[in-house]
Write a structure and sequence with these properties.
With 241 residues, the chain is mainly alpha-helical. The chain is built from 10 helices and no strands. Helices cover 82% and strands 0% of the residues.
Amino acid sequence: MFTDVLFIVGLTALAGACIPLGGLLASFERIRPNWLEQEFRHFLIALGGGILLGAVSVVLIPEGQASMGDSLWAIPAIIAGGLLFFAIERILGLKRRESPQLMGVMLDFIPEATALGGLAVVSPETAVLMAVLIAMQNLPEGFNAYRELASLPGYTSGKTLAFMACLVITGPLAGLLGYFFLSERPVVLGVIMLVASGGILYLIFQDIAPQSRLEHHWGPPLGAVVGFCLALFSHDLVGQV
């Protein structure tokens, strides 16, 4: 069991490390010329949104439905997730702490890390590929989350990166939760993934997609397509193991 724990902690920590790594890349404030900086930032916002959409459609919802035995209760769980994160965003908005990209990172990272913990013993190869998928998602999402946090009052570059580094620990905690408590409770794990899916869909269409739009530029919408295909490609790799 000790080996399994180390395996889970290692995979989830490495995947989570891409959150502050993306933030570190975003901390280089200027890309020349200025139009390239603007387009690159919007491209990454769209890329993150596309990856989140891909994660929902090819990983979280299918796995969540399967864990619930393809029950129709999956639909209320997804709706409940959208309503839950609507409420969370309203509360954060009242405190002027809106950060949809950061919420998207954690909504995606935590349930997938939890699922990874449940898979680590049954199928180590699948767990490794899932960790790669999570890492690829976390990099652009970490970039976008840094820009959001850095724009809030009181956040300096160092403080923002330190906060993002602290988020890495949520991956191992979620993975160990899945390993010890949810590996034999597939219905509960399925509900978690479906609620997260509803929240992600709300964030994509409420906040992330509008931020990605840039007049007279084709890069951002292509970023969304690339992000979705990246998630689909990673899922296909997992399916071939």
